């Protein structure tokens, strides 16, 4: 596991960052976060209550690779207040190595477009 303090320390220390724009058909903030967490096998460090309604969500995620490398992710997403109700924002990935930052960014780019099983007809 990883505490908030350890997360912040590593975030400041890690030099590789990959920023991914949020592009998804998911329109619920909690569903989007849950989908990213499950699709990347990361741990969400930020407690959130699915019953809370709002137009903004920020969360920190953490994972350690099989090679012992730490990966940090910050999800910052908002629900647009227009008729589309689309989500917008960025997912920032930080790691010690470029490879982890890039491969995790590719993974997130691929999976974020998908529909979580709870929304499939």
Describe this structure in words.
The chain has 121 residues and is of the alpha+beta class. The mean pLDDT is 89. Helix content is 31%, strand content 30%.
Topology:
Elements: H1 4-13, E1 16-21, H2 29-40, E2 43-44, E3 56-64, E4 70-79, E5 87-95, H3 98-112
Antiparallel strand pairs: 1-5, 2-3, 3-4, 4-5
Helix pairs in contact: 2-3
Q: Helix coverage percent of residues? A: 25-40%
Number of strands: 5
Global geometry: globular
Largest sheet: 5 strands, antiparallel
Output the strand order for the largest sheet. Answer: 1-5-4-3-2
Number of helices: 3
**Cα-based radius of gyration, to the nearest Å:** 14 Å
What is the strand content?
25-35%
Summarize this structure briefly.
This protein has helices at residues 4-13, 29-40, 98-112; strands at 16-21, 43-44, 56-64, 70-79, 87-95. It has 121 residues and is of the alpha+beta class.
Descriptors:
5-stranded antiparallel sheet, 5 strands, single chain, alpha+beta, 121 residues, 31% helix
């Amino acid at each position: 596991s990883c505490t908030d303090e350890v997360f912040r320390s590593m975030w400041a220390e890690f030099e590789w960052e990959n920023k991914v724009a949020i592009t998804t058909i998911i329109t619920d903030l909690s569903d989007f976060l849950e989908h990213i967490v499950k699709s990347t096998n990361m741990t969400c460090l930020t407690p959130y209550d699915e019953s809370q309604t709002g137009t903004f969500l920020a969360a920190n995620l953490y994972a350690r690779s099989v090679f012992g490398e730490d990966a940090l992710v910050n999800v910052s997403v908002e629900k647009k207040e227009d008729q589309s109700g689309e989500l917008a924002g960025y997912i920032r990935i930080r790691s010690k190595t470029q490879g982890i930052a890039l491969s995790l960014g590719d993974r997130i780019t691929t999976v974020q477009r998908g529909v979580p099983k709870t929304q499939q007809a």
